[in-house]
Design brief:
Layout: H1 14-18, H2 20-30, E1 34-38, H3 44-53, E2 60-65, H4 78-94, E3 101-106, H5 109-118, E4 125-130, H6 136-149, E5 150-158, H7 178-187, E6 192-195, E7 202-206
């Protein structure tokens, strides 16, 4: 396939299958201005947010990823994935009616999110999307730091709630997101409200600090 600078370069439909049916209705209703994404891969979700929200206003979006991949990306050329992310998000920004403030943070999420907190961005973001590492210890860390960055009334979305490393085998509870997400929603039950949605993803609204 010939390279076309005016066409998106996506090699999978993960976002369309898991998130798009919900996001198509939810994101316009939430109408967030400041957005944080942990785990960006080729940029499908970031491009959707830019394309949807930048039609009517300026937004600020931060994307965090190592672009090193995880255990499930064995054999994937992650440098090419990063190149496609840069191409896709550049195209989305270029085509925006209202140009977004776009920030690419290449690094481990615990370090990047801690730096954002150190910069004074507590309760700054309207929407936080957790879609990085699938390892439970990493997910709980992203959730806790993301919660501190999320403002009251804002929404946090977790991808891959039902993801399993080996779907045909017994799931290792440390190597999937669900136990971490369940622990977070249990420990923060007085501070979040679960938003009803199809369960492959899980959505919570922050109701108190």
């Amino acid at each position: 396939m010939a390279y076309d600078p005016n066409q998106y370069l996506f090699t999978n439909n993960w976002f369309e299958g898991a998130a798009l049916p919900v996001w198509s209705n939810l994101i316009p209703q939430l109408n967030p201005v400041r957005l944080l994404e942990v785990g960006s891969y080729e940029g499908a979700s970031a491009c959707f947010l830019i394309n949807t929200l930048s039609r009517s206003k300026e937004i600020e979006i931060h994307c965090v990823d190592t672009w090193q991949g995880g255990a499930e990306h064995t054999g994937v050329d992650m440098s090419s994935v990063e190149s496609r992310f840069r191409h896709n998000t550049d195209l989305a920004v270029r085509n925006s009616i209202y140009k977004p403030q776009f920030f690419m943070h290449k690094g481990f999420s615990d370090v990047v999110l801690s730096k954002l907190l150190a910069q004074g961005l507590q309760q700054y973001f309207d929407f936080v999307y957790i879609d990085g590492s699938h390892q439970a210890p990493d997910v709980i860390c992203d959730a806790i730091l993301g919660f501190r960055l999320l403002k009251v009334g804002g929404v946090m979305a977790f991808d891959d709630y039902l993801w399993g490393e080996n779907p045909t085998e017994t799931t290792d509870p440390v190597r999937c997101p669900k136990p971490a997400i369940d622990a977070f929603t249990s420990l923060y039950c007085r501070k979040v409200r679960i938003i009803p949605a199809p369960l492959y993803q899980l959505y919570v609204q922050k109701v108190s600090t």
